[in-house]
Specification:
The complex is a heterotrimer of chains A (352), B (250) and C (71). By secondary structure, chain B is an alpha/beta fold. Helices cover 40% and strands 20% of the residues of chain B. With 71 residues, chain C is α+β, with helices and mostly antiparallel strands. The chains are: A alpha/beta (352), B alpha/beta (250), C alpha+beta (71).
């Protein structure tokens, strides 16, 4: 398929359809409203269903039902809307159901701003609902990567039986880039024999969320954590950029990693041996990337569009908080390249 | 010699956990009997609530999902949109449906989702221990309205059938009760009709059952049924609030 | 002469007395001697006047009652 120029929000909608998703339940919110707008016209063309729910709360619970019924199902929103969806995300996680959730992040907290942000890392990666659980979190840095990750998200969700959250931001949602839809599933997916379909002549199916006996609830949770251990072992993903000879490493994801990439070219020109580790999965966090680099890197320079959320995972992964420096902008401000260059020089020791 | 009444196969053999005399057991049975008589129990999927009937999935001998508090109509919407050929129903109490889930029930009804909602109105929060419900009658005591509900302080009860019947989405709305054998017979007729209308794909159907909570009302089961007749039904009148099948037949 | 027969599943019965309250022929009452495993006095049949009207079974929240019509 030839590359086409698409806006991020529309491209992720098309990616979902290409991945076989036929059900979308959502609610408008800036800066992701083009996702429901696009799917409201495109899903019916392929026999799919689009429902504009009365709220994000209702939308995620429609997703819970459709996922329980065995369908590939999508919802999307932006930060305050994702906050509203947290209850339902927890229920879907607890029931071990597959679903894909796109968050085109904006600045917060509360109503915040409509400009891009990355301050939902903690809510998304650390679990914004109650209880012990994880969701797989993918962090695209381009429209193409958002497309690939949305398509992969459906496979990961079905394979592991878990919600997968694609954590992008308003900038990726709003900008246009050339994309193609070439993702091919590499996983062997089992039929959904557990789904709610009416029992027919077989045994009835139940999707359970209340496990009232504490011993049973603990065993239930532990069974989830056995699954999470497999995901942590198999699904960590990251990009290493100019890390071969690097003495210093930026750590950044999504939109902020694009600015860091530009800053690195200036810093390299100025003689700094600096590269970047770019997590592509935020949960599982790519700790493996840090294990092999640990001794060689003098400082990790974490850059985020937040007041510092991923930085705690970086500190944990490199096992030395004294090696961590942080630079962030918040409230919808996207850092400029020269800010990152200055930050890098400050950490790495003046002009070369 | 012929058996004229025995337990429906659309209920499991799991012993009900409800308090003695709780009418949930009666309504569970009516839903199951109606589905079995329609031949749809093998084709049914129930969305069950948070509240005393959170374990309804253990008693219904058909597919079921436990929903978040108040969200059963949204979850049922998701199921029905994936399986339009299945019978999808929600079973909800008054705290679940008329308080925390008000938005979900109104919008499922307004969209005309082709599902059936069975709404149990006993005017109290049962599972959490007798707190005031959106349907608690004025003057009725609750653990969060110890002197009795005072509309000046606690607001007024919500009459759900009347409210939903103003919408264009629902096609059948009836309020019934189960305080006498005759009412039980009528309640079953209403539930069966609602499910039959769903099977025909005509739209959203809703049956409210004025019910009891002997434990939290502090009354015996028999006295609770009397309370339904003397206090609850005058405030929540029984009858058909909407029926487009009757209108079409005129 | 009984026209019907009511059978109470004493294990399921919670002694709520709803069946007793609706029986037009006063066929049922709660046992004053038996206590079931759950600690309830189950309903029991006390006369032969059953007419198989099924009122008791309709009101039973625990599906503890079977009714037969006798020829």
């Amino acid at each position: 398929m030839a590359k086409v120029l698409m806006k991020g929000n529309e491209a992720v909608g098309k990616a979902a359809i290409e991945a076989g998703c036929r059900y979308f339940f959502g609610y408008p919110i800036t800066p992701q409203s083009e996702v429901p707008e696009y799917l409201s016209s495109e899903l019916p063309k392929v026999g799919g269903v689009f429902v504009q729910a009365e709220s994000e709360v209702a939308a995620i619970n429609m997703v819970y039902g459709a996922a329980g019924a065995g369908a590939r199902v999508l919802t999307s929103s932006s930060s305050p809307g994702i906050a509203l969806k947290q209850e339902g995300i927890g229920y879907i996680s607890n029931a071990g159901l597959p679903a894909v959730i796109i968050n085109m992040m904006r600045g917060g907290p509360g109503l915040g701003t409509i400009q891009p942000g990355q301050a939902d890392y903690n809510m998304t990666v650390k679990g914004g609902s109650n209880g012990d659980y994880h969701d797989i979190v993918l962090a695209p840095a381009s429209v193409q990567e958002a497309v690939d990750m949305v398509m992969e998200a459906f496979d990961l969700a079905d394979y592991y039986g878990t919600p997968v959250i694609v954590l992008a931001d308003g900038l990726i949602g709003q900008m246009m880039e050339p994309v193609e839809f070439n993702y091919v599933c590499k996983k062997e997916l089992a039929p959904k024999t557990w789904a709610l379909t009416g029992k027919g002549d077989g045994e009835k199916h139940m999707i359970q969320n209340l496990v009232i006996e504490p011993d049973e609830c603990e065993a239930w949770n532990k069974s989830h954590f056995e699954k999470y251990a497999v995901i942590e072992a198999n699904e960590q993903a990251w990009e290493e950029y100019l890390m071969e000879d690097a003495e210093y490493a930026f750590v950044s994801y999504g939109t902020s990693s694009r600015i860091v990439r530009s800053a690195i070219s200036y810093l390299r020109e100025a003689g700094y041996k600096v590269g970047m580790i770019r997590p592509k999965t935020l949960w599982p966090f790519p700790a493996k990337a840090f294990e092999k680099l640990d001794k060689k890197i003098k400082k990790y320079m974490d850059v985020e569009m937040s007041m510092g959320q991923m930085v705690q995972d970086v500190a944990y992964a490199c096992n030395d908080k004294n090696k961590i420096e942080f630079y962030g902008r918040t409230g919808g401000v996207v850092p400029a390249v020269d800010e990152i260059v200055e930050f890098g020089k400050r950490v790495m020791g003046g002009d070369k | 010699m012929a058996v004229v009444f025995q337990k429906t196969k659309a209920l499991t053999d799991v012993k009900l956990h409800y308090c003695p005399g709780c009418a949930h057991g009666i309504v569970h049975r009516l839903v199951a009997e109606a589905l079995e008589e329609l031949g749809e129990d093998k084709n049914a999927i129930a969305a069950v609530p948070v509240g005393c009937s959170v374990f309804a999935n253990k008693y219904f001998n058909f597919d079921a999902i436990q929903c978040a508090h108040g969200r059963a109509p949204a979850t049922a919407t998701g199921i029905k949109r994936v399986h339009p050929d299945k019978i999808v129903l929600t079973y909800q109490g008054d705290g679940d449906l008329a308080s925390i889930g008000t938005a979900e029930i109104i919008h499922a009804a307004a969209r005309g989702e082709k599902i059936t909602t069975i709404f149990i109105n006993n005017g109290i929060y049962g599972m959490t221990g007798g707190q005031m419900a959106p349907t608690t009658l004025p003057g009725m005591k609750a653990t969060t309205a110890k002197a009795g509900r005072d509309p000046k302080i606690n607001g007024n009860p919500i009459r759900v059938c009347e409210m939903l019947s103003t919408l264009d989405g629902p096609v059948y709305i009836e309020r019934v009760s189960v305080s006498t054998p005759a009412q039980v017979t009528q309640a079953k007729r209403a539930i069966k009709k609602a499910l039959e209308i769903q099977r025909q794909g005509l739209g959203f159907t809703f049956v409210e059952v004025v019910s009891t909570c002997p434990t939290n009302w502090g009354l015996t089961p028999v006295k609770s049924m009397e309370f339904v007749r003397e206090k609850m039904i005058p405030y929540y009148p029984l009858g058909v609030y909407k029926d487009i099948t009757a209108e079409e037949g005129k | 002469m009984a026209k019907g027969r009511v059978t109470i599943n004493e294990t399921l019965c919670k002694g709520c007395e709803l069946c007793v309250s609706v029986c037009p022929k006063h066929v049922l009452q709660l046992s004053t001697t038996k206590i079931n495993a759950s600690g309830y006095n189950p309903a029991e049949v006390v006369n032969d006047d059953c007419i198989a009207c099924t009122s008791c079974a309709k009101m039973c929240p625990d599906c503890a009652i079977t009714v037969e019509k006798l020829d």
